[in-house]
Amino acid sequence: AQTVTQSQPEMSVQEAETVTLSCTYDTSESDYYLFWYKQPPSRQMILVIRQEAYKQQNATENRFSVNFQKAAKSFSLKISDSQLGDAAMYFCAYRSGGEDKLIFGTGTRLQVFP
Amino acid sequence: GAGVSQSPSNKVTEKGKDVELRCDPISGHTALYWYRQSLGQGLEFLIYFQGNSAPDKSGLPSDRFSAERTGGSVSTLTIQRTQQEDSAVYLCASSYLSGNTIYFGEGSWLTVV
């Protein structure tokens, strides 16, 4: 069975600095997708970034980028120029290419200090 | 609607009572998911509906939990004889067909006392 591990329960960063959130996963499949979701206090999960396993190029969305290391099964999220609004829970998620449900990690709470 | 809508936003119920949680997916979305988020935990998959196919119920924790989706749109998650360990946020999500981006609602926070 696939698993997703986030080993950092909490992280903090100063405004305008860069922070990296870690995620590792375990799978024997070759076709899959990886996601980072943000959950602010409003509880709504918001998609931050998505990576297809077949793509070698790391996904980037404005200040958010990933470091996808397929052989190491690692999928970290880098947030550049951190803003106060980035404070939230961040969840890493995996989806098999043959299934539709997402498998989530336990999350990392990010605090941003002014 | 513009997004996935869930009701109630918050529900406090007595142990042993039944509760119903409602999810209204984004219009046109064929796939609908229910997840449970317990305090300090990640999201636990409960059930998945896709069009007219039989739902994937593999994540339902016990037979006290059930869900239905009427007319391929609105879904109701029912928890019978609630227990304190059922206290959690129940998140609904939808997507247009399978494999596309999944959009979440704001969840229903259930507290069983």
Written account of the structure:
The complex is a heterodimer of chains A (114) and B (113). With 114 residues, chain A is mainly beta. Helices cover 0% and strands 53% of the residues of chain A. In chain A, the strands form 3 sheets. In chain A, strands 2, 5, 6, 10, 11 and 12 form a 6-stranded mixed β-sheet that branches. In chain A, strand 5 (32-39) and strand 6 (46-52) form a beta hairpin. The radius of gyration of chain A is 14 Å and the shape is globular. The mean pLDDT of chain A is 94. Chain B is an all-beta fold. Helices cover 0% and strands 47% of the residues of chain B. Chain B contains no helices and 10 strands. In chain B, strands 2, 4, 5, 8, 9 and 10 form a 6-stranded mixed β-sheet that branches. Chain B has a 4-stranded antiparallel β-sheet with strand order 1-3-7-6, with no helix packed on it. In chain B, strand 4 and strand 5 (43-50) form a beta hairpin. In chain B, 34% of the residues are buried. The mean pLDDT of chain B is 92. The chains are: A mainly beta (114), B mainly beta (113). The interface between A and B is medium-sized, with 21 and 28 residues.
Residue-averaged pLDDT of chain B: 92
Cα Rg of chain B: 13 Å
Poorly predicted parts of chain A = none
Could you spell the SSE succession of chain A in H and E letters?
EEEEEEEEEEEE
What's the oligomerization state?
heterodimer
Structural class of chain B: mainly beta
Give the C-alpha Rg of chain A: 14 Å
Low-confidence stretches of chain B: none
What would the average pLDDT of chain A be, to the nearest integer?
94
